Amino acid sequence: MRVVAHRLIVAGCTVVGLALVYAVVNVQGPAPDLALAVSGALAESGVSHPVTAVLLNFRAYDTLLEVAVMLVAPLVAAALPTTAPAPAKPTNDPVLQALAAVAVPLALLLAIYLLLIGASRSGGAFHAAAVLAGALVLLQLATGRSLPAWLTPTRQQPLLILGLALFCAVGWLSLLLGGYFLGYPPAWAGVMILVIESGLTLSLALALWRLMP
Amino acid sequence: MTSALGYAIAGALLVAMGLAAMLLHHHLVRRLIAFNIMGGGVFLVLLGLAPGHGEQADPVAQALILTGIVVAVAATGLALALARRLHQAGGDVRLDHPSSREDDDDQK
Amino acid sequence: MSLWLDLLLIVALLWIAAGALFSRQLFRAVVLFIVFGLLLALAWARQAAADVALAEAAIGAGLTGALLLDAAGRFRRVRGGKDAGGSP
């Protein structure tokens, strides 16, 4: 019975795979050239890197909702009742500690660089947040603690929603300035995007860090 | 055949392989691996079918994939948090009945 | 020349993915998944998608891989004296 079910699954998935390949090969008509549209409007987006312009200006609504999704995971994880939390166990590994002493400051520098360079080259809030979260994990592994003790999970909550709150605030601000929600006035767009990205970096780094067990 | 189409076809195959693994395995971690590989396949199709310009790939597709990667890690983290809680409470991280097991995929 | 490189990368992607999906040992599957993430980052770089390549290497391979590795180690010991996953 089990073998028959397995064979049915394999056969079905083979059919699905062939159909998908057929669909991919036989896409009808040329796809709309969005790259051209983006580069045409790049001048009024406030940044010169097309990917950042799409993420935080042209399709900022998508990114806003993504940040909201990113908030759900740590909040649900925090709502789960846990038995005794695992005690932090500092390692005495001198290699790890020496590595952390060199790598953590470098990672902080790299995160700031990635955040700022996002306006003109590859980089941005998501990359900076990933590097920042990585630095926190390394610090935790080497020293047994990373965030300061007064920053308890409850007190982390304002920081956790900072990115989303700034995003919404800037969106409403651009509405008040005569545009529409998240439609930044071109003169202010560069500053607004930098403000949003700075908040996002902190919030996303904390969210990614809290996903870690 | 251009290499972009090759990546798109590879993406379609990855989706099918991931689907098969998702249905065949019962271990939660294995299903999460399949989920992530299916996601990678979808991203490959997305970028492979977008018209390229050599210098830089379609920025809209890139932004969508970036969003997708971050949402995927959030979903994986949430699923693992739930699985850890289940494990702590004494539950089983495999979804099938213990008596019907024949593969030994989480040994050693 | 470059077409062959792409073809090689595609074959490697599919091969490693098959290993990550159908390997018998869970730990091995997770390690192969991390390798898959890094190869996928290479594929993005080959397609001139630098932003995606960076994010995939950091988040897709690194962070997801770390999460899965932790889970694989944690779930290995099944509590309550039940068998660790079937017949040996």
Query: Nearest-angstrom radius of gyration of chain B?
Result: 18 Å
Separation of the first and last Cα atoms of chain A: 39 Å
Order of helices and strands of chain B: HHH
Q: The biggest beta sheet of chain B, please?
A: none
Helix coverage percent of residues of chain A? Answer: over 70%
Main sheet specs of chain A: none
Shape of chain B: elongated
Q: Can you name the CATH architecture of chain B?
A: Orthogonal Bundle
> Helix amount of chain B, in percent?
55-70%
Domain count of chain B: the total is: 1
Helical/strand content category of chain A: mainly alpha
- Judging from the principal axes of the Cα atoms, what is the shape of chain A? globular
Average pLDDT of chain B: 86
Q: Tell me the greatest interface.
A: B-C, 57 and 56 residues
Give average pLDDT of chain A, whole number: 87
Report low-confidence residues of chain B grouped into runs of 5 or more.
104-108
Account of the 3D structure:
The complex is a heterotrimer of chains A (213), B (108) and C (88). Chain A is an all-alpha fold and 213 residues long. Chain A is 72% helix and 0% strand. Chain A has 8 helices and no strands. In chain A, 35% of the residues are buried. The model of chain A has no long low-confidence stretch (mean pLDDT 87). In chain B, 69% of the residues lie in helices and 0% in strands. In chain B, helix 1 (3-24) runs antiparallel to helix 2 (28-49) and helix 2 (28-49) runs antiparallel to helix 3. Chain B has helices spanning 3-24, 28-49, 59-88. Chain B starts with a helix and ends in a 20-residue tail after the last helix. The relative contact order of chain B is 0.13. Chain B has a single domain, classed as Orthogonal Bundle (Helix Hairpins), CATH 1.10.287.3510. Chain C has one domain. In chain C, 76% of the residues lie in helices and 0% in strands. Chain C is built from 3 helices and no strands. Chain C is flat and about 45 Å long. The interface between B and C is large, with 57 and 56 residues.
